[in-house]
Amino acid sequence: MSVWVANVSTSQFEVCLRESRTFDGPHNNLAVNWLAYDNNPSSWQAKESSEVTFSNNEVPAAENNYALCKNVNFTNPFYSSPVVLATVINGGSNNANIACPLKDPLSSWLEEVTNSYFRVCIKDDAGYDGQRSTIIVDYLVKGDLDPCINVSCKYHSHCVSLSPHRFTCRCESSCPSYEEQVCASNGRTFRNLCLLKQEICRTRGNFTDYHPGSCT
Fold first, then answer.
1. 213, 183 in Cβ contact below 8 A?
2. Cβ atoms 119, 110 nearer than 8 A
3. Which residues of 98-128 are buried (b: 16+ CB within 10 A; e: fewer)?
4. What CDD domains does the entry give (predicted)?
């Protein structure tokens, strides 16, 4: 069963349903749960919201099984994969007198929801014939942001998230073995720049890289 929303206005909207297979018997007591909001309540603690547009001239490709998909990058990374609420608006029209578009049954889904992006896909259930309307997908994201956002660690350490609200600064645990010598300002030669920064971090040393090559 495909379900989509059309003709959304400030006072009403239209919800459409269509079987994935042409009439396969009667369906009793079908119900569509819905939630409408203008500005999301502060209690939701939503971190961002926006929309994705699939224009009517975008053609689905065979390698995507004739679906249209787009990656959406989050404004800031999350600690873990957040919850993404999405609503598909089919038709791009606010005219409540227009009936549900008979040629536009849609399947829509989210995939690859990670801490930095998600992927939204739509597919014309009846097969694309060049007459699809513009599709808008509104989305809202809930979750805990990465606590390392805007954290600046000292001594060449890097921020590591421990929980949604805790972090620590850690030194580089391992360095490559290649040799590209660098001379530190304390007169010591290091095999490469990574090892120099690792030593500064571990000792909280007050020295820096001085010049490429050996100190001697």
1. yes
2. yes
3. eebbeebbbbbebeebebeebebbbbbeeee
4. KAZAL_FS
